[in-house]
Specification:
Elements (H helix, E strand, L loop, with lengths): L2 H15 L6 H17 L4 H15 L2 H4 L4 H16 L15 E6 L6 H14 L4 E5 L7 H12 L3 E2 L7 H15 L3 E5 L8 H14 L3 E7 L4 H14 L3 E5 L8 H10 L3 E5 L7 E3 L2 H8 L5 H11 L2 H13 L4 H13 L3 H5 L17 H12 L3 H5 L6 H11 L3 H21 L4 H8 L7
Parallel strand pairs: 1-4, 1-5, 2-3, 2-4, 5-6, 6-7
Antiparallel strand pairs: 7-8
Helix pairs in contact: 1-2, 1-5, 2-3, 3-5, 5-12, 6-7, 8-9, 10-11, 15-17, 17-19, 19-20
């Protein structure tokens, strides 16, 4: 999302990098470019005006003009002010000291409210909570069914009273149900409209009055640009929201909403949706997002993703197998699935300092290739997976037919696996660090 903005900001910084010392005129010219970059990214005009004013005041101070490395100081100031603009620090979801914690999900139709109610419930389920999803949208056709499908995928129960009962009554009864059954988090999926109207807001006010939610989270579609800020402002005025979930942040849009919402509403972005899958939701860290925008990477989020996908016991077993040269195609499949868990390769590369998001546009993990590799391995017998050297021509033909692939694809996988085993053999006697460095250079089949 911020690829274009990041590029334009870095072009503006080049104006400073070419100077040994900066003058006020240099700063003014550079700030004009930064201002244009922000406006083109659809950042609210008032936000841009105040942001440029603060950055300019700091940039013409002694910390920059008398610095030995003025360009770095300007980048540092812009980074700090972007972070402050988006909230300064992470704003966590408030957990009620007396369960259940009631989260009321609000927003316009099509923003991803129902899906993100599920994503959020799934996130907290992984943290040991007992969430309950509540079908409070009785107007949109199939809204209840959609939430039930999401709940089924995540193995989270869904409370519903059908579409003939008022949402206020549903909200009241679901909290009673949660208390009786021991659910400690309740996510109420409320109705949305194609536009804000009095009936919608009155109903939401009544639900709020009935259940006194711990959090009111507004789901906003980042793809609608500046309009998302207007939506957030209106919902906040009428409901006094506690936070925002910004969805579709993986989309190819200008991204100004993320830089404007906190400033305009005074309410924090708490989570961001980064894709369609039910695990693609992240806590929002203003400092990490500022670093991503400026091309400084986001190593902490990358580590978080790796740790979420990383099984320490499995990793220890893998290292042992590598050393003893007992690595099988089953282990190969496990490693492939670990990498898949980390998500989109292009997004991950954008978190590495110095790497631009979009640098690997043509090198994304090929889901089709992954599924073919998995199908081929699963079509093998346990003995073939352990001892692939026994796979002769007739076995290859059977595996290709069983996996819906070709003999050529089976041969390719076996060749790559053989190359990996040879590489492992080379470093099986090396020290741990040197060996793992070589392992990092191995070619995987995707």
């Amino acid at each position: 999302m911020f690829e274009s903005l990041g590029e334009k900001l870095n072009n503006a910084f080049k104006r400073f990098r070419n100077k040994g010392k900066l003058t006020e005129a240099d700063v003014k010219a550079g700030m004009r470019e930064i201002k244009l970059a922000l406006l083109e990214a659809d950042v609210n005009f008032k936000v841009v005006r105040d942001f440029i004013k603060i950055v300019s005041e700091r940039a013409v101070g002694t910390e920059v003009l008398e610095s030995l490395l003025p360009a770095q100081q300007v980048v540092k100031i812009v980074n700090e002010e972007l972070t402050r603009l988006m909230g300064g620090s992470q704003s966590k979801l408030v957990i009620s000291p007396k369960p259940p914690t009631v989260i009321m999900m609000v927003g316009l139709q099509g923003a991803g409210k129902t899906t993100h109610a599920g994503k959020l419930a799934g996130l907290y389920k992984k943290q040991g909570k007992r969430p309950l999803l509540v079908a409070g949208d009785v107007y949109r056709p199939a809204a209840i069914k959609q939430l039930q499908v999401v709940g089924e995928k995540l193995e989270i129960p869904v409370f519903t009273m059908g579409d003939q009962v008022s949402p206020v009554q549903i909200a009241r009864e679901d909290v009673k149900h949660a208390i009786q059954k021991g659910y400690d988090m309740v996510f109420i999926d409320t109705a949305g409209r194609l536009q804000i109207d009095e009936v919608l807001m009155e109903e939401l006010k009544n639900i709020k009055a009935e259940v006194n939610p711990t959090e009111i989270l507004l789901t906003v579609d980042a793809m609608i640009g500046q309009e998302s800020v207007n939506v957030a402002e209106t919902f906040n005025e009428l409901l006094d929201i506690t936070g925002v979930i910004l969805t579709k942040l993986d989309g190819d849009t200008r991204g100004g909403a993320a830089l404007s919402i906190r400033y305009v509403t005074g309410k924090p972005i708490k989570f961001v949706g980064m894709g369609e899958k039910l695990d693609t939701i992240e806590p929002f860290h203003p400092d990490r997002m500022a670093s991503r925008i400026l091309g400084m990477g986001d190593v902490l989020t990358l580590i978080d993703k790796a740790q979420a996908a990383f099984d320490e016991k499995q990793a220890a077993e893998l290292e042992q197998k590598m050393r003893q040269q007992t690595f099988t195609l089953d282990d190969y499949l496990d490693q492939m699935n670990q990498i898949k868990k980390m998500g989109n390769l292009d997004q991950l590369m954008g978190m590495i300092p110095g790497m631009k998001p979009g640098a690997l546009k043509d090198a994304k993990i090929d889901e089709k290739a992954l599924s073919h590799t998995e199908a081929i391995i699963r079509a093998m017998t346990p003995k073939e997976r352990t001892k692939p050297e026994i796979i002769n021509a007739s076995r290859k033909k059977r595996i290709a037919q069983g996996s819906g692939t070709s003999v050529e694809e089976v041969n390719k996988l076996l060749r790559q696996f053989e190359q990996m085993l040879k590489m492992m053999k080379q470093f099986s006697g090396m020290g741990k660090n040197k060996g793992m460095k070589m392992f990092g250079r191995m070619k995987m089949p995707f």
